[in-house]
Please model this.
Amino acid sequence: MTEAVLATHAISKNFGALKASDNISIDLRPNEIHAIIGPNGAGKSTLIAQICGTLKPCAGNVELLGRDVTKESARDRVRAGLGRTFQISALAMEDTVLQNAMLGALGASGRPWRFFGPALRDNELRDAAECALLRVGLEDFMRVRTAELSHGQRRQLEVAVSLTLNPRVFVMDEPMAGLGSEGSKRLTGFLDALRHEAPILLVEHDMDAVFALADRISVLVYGRIIATGSGNDIRANPEVQEAYLGDEA
Amino acid sequence: MIKERHLNMALIVVCVVIPVWAHLADEPFIITLMTRAAIFALAAVGLNIALGLGGLVSLGHAAFFGLGGYAMGISAFHAQTFTPVAEWPFLIEGTKSMPAIWLISVAVSAFAATIVGILSLRTSGVYFIMITLAFGQMFFYFSISWPTYGGEDGLSVYVRNGFPGLNTLDPIQFFMICFAILVAALALASRLARSPFGLALNAARQAPQRVETVGLDPNRLKLVAFVISGAMTGLAGALFADLNRFVSPAMFSWQLSGEIMVFVIIGGVGRLFGPVAGALVFVTLEHLLGGFSEFWHVHLGVLLLLVVLFGRGGLIGMICGREGSHD
Ligand SMILES: Nc1ncnc2c1ncn2[C@@H]1O[C@H](COP(=O)(O)OP(=O)(O)OP(=O)(O)O)[C@@H](O)[C@H]1O
Ligand SMILES: [Mg+2]
Model:
C-alpha cells in the first residue's frame, strides 16, 4: 500500500447529542479520487470541515502529507498544500470572476502586503488566474461580477480558485451541484485528469459522476463510515443498498 | 447616469473654485468653511478605508481624530511655553512646525489604532461597534481628566503652526495645505483599493472564509486597514486643531465619530469620493441650516435616512449608479 497523502484517524465530532462524526478513519492515496457519499445530513461537510481545520474534532487526528495537523489552523493546512472547495460557495460576490481567481493566486504567492501597483496589472497573478479559469471553462466570464454567475458557474469558480493554489491535495464538497448534465459531464472529465496532479477527496451527490470517477467510495451514514471499497463493492454491499442507494432506486 | 470619474472631477473643481472665488471676493469665512470640509473629508477618507474596504464599522474614529488633535495641541503648547514635553528617557521638545506635528500625529494615531484594532478585531458585528465606541469614550474621559493639558477646557494655541515657505495664517494658503493633503490621501486610498492588498482586503470583507481558504489571514488584513485608516483620521485631527487653534475633549466625543461615519454614509460607503461629497454636504447644511435652528441635525438625520433607504451607494451611488469594476 502506498503512503496516504491525507488521512483521518478515528475522528469524532459531537454537536450536543448528535454524533456528526463517529470514529471516522479514511485516507486518500496519490493519484486517487476517493468519493464520500451519504444521505443529506450524514455529516459529509462536517468531516470536510475537520479535515480542513475549520472545525476541531472532539477526538482523533488528521494527517496531511505525513504530518499530524490536528492542531494546525486552516490557513496552515492550506499553506501545506490543501485546496478546498465549499458546498455553499464562499466567494467575494461583489468582485469579478477574475478578481476571485486572482485572490487565490495572491494567496499562493504569499505576498499580500503590496499596497501600490494595481493587482490587475500584476501579470504573474493574472496569468495564474486566467489559466485556472480557462481550465474550468469560465474564460468568457472573467469580467462578470460573481453575483451574476449561475449556481453551477460559482461551483466552477470555486474549483478554479483552488486550482490557483497548486495544492497537493484537493478536498471538494459537491462541486457538481447545480451544474446541469452538460456541465457535470465536462467537470467529470476535468476531475478525471486532475487526479494525476493531486488526489481528490470528493463529496458528491451525483452518482453517475461518483461511479465514473471514484477509485474508492466510502459511504457515510449518521456520522459513521459503513463501507469503503470500489464502485462494484459498494453497489453490491447490502448494507449500503439498504441505508442509502436503496431509497434512490 | 454621470460617470463616477466625471463626478469626482467635478467635486475636486468645486473644492478649488469656491475657496479661490472666496479669496478673490475677500470672504475668508467661506474659505474657513471649505477648509473645515476638506479636513472632515480627510478624516472620512481615512474611515472609509476601514469601513468601505474592510467592512469595519468603527464608531471610535474620533479617538484617532482627537489623538491627532492633541498631538498638535501638546507639541504646540510646549513650544509656546518653552517647556519640554519630556525630559526622560531623553529630552523631547515641543514644536510649532506642521510637518513635524503631522508625523507625530500619524505615528501616535497609528499606534493607538494598532492597539484598538488588535483588541476590537477579536469581535465582529455589533460587538465591534460597541468596543470601538468604548475605546473612543475611554480617550474622551482620559482627556477630560488630564489637567496638565486643559482638562475639560481644552488647550488653546495662540499662533497657527508654521509650514516652511508658506504663511499658514493666510486662510487660502492654509486651505491649500489641507486640500493638498486630502488629494494625496485620495490618491493613496485609490491605489490601495486596487492593489494586491486591496484585493485581499475586499475579499476579507465579503467572504473571510474564502480568504482563509487561500492561506491568508483576514483579520490581519483588516488590522492593517484599520491602522492606515486611524493614521489618516489622526492626521485630519492635527489639521482640525490647527484650523481652530484649539483642541478640546470634544474632538474625542462619540458624536464626532458618528459625524465622520455620516460623511461616509451620505457620500457613499466604499466610494472613493464618497467622503468628499459627504463632508461638503454636511458643512453646507451646517452653515445654511445651523443659522436657522439649533436642531439642524434633524435635517441631517432626514437626509441620512433618505440616503440609506433609497440610495445604497450614498449620493455618489444615486448619481452614478453601481460601482464599475476597478480596471
Ligand atoms: N455547527 C453545527 N452545529 C450543530 N449541528 C450541526 C452543525 N453543523 C452541522 N450540524 C448537523 O450535523 C449533521 C451533519 O451535517 P453536514 O452538513 O455535515 O451534513 P452533510 O452530509 O454535508 O449534508 P448535505 O448532503 O445536506 O450537505 C446535520 O444533522 C447537521 O444539522
Ligand atoms: Mg454537505
Chain B has 13 helices and two strands.
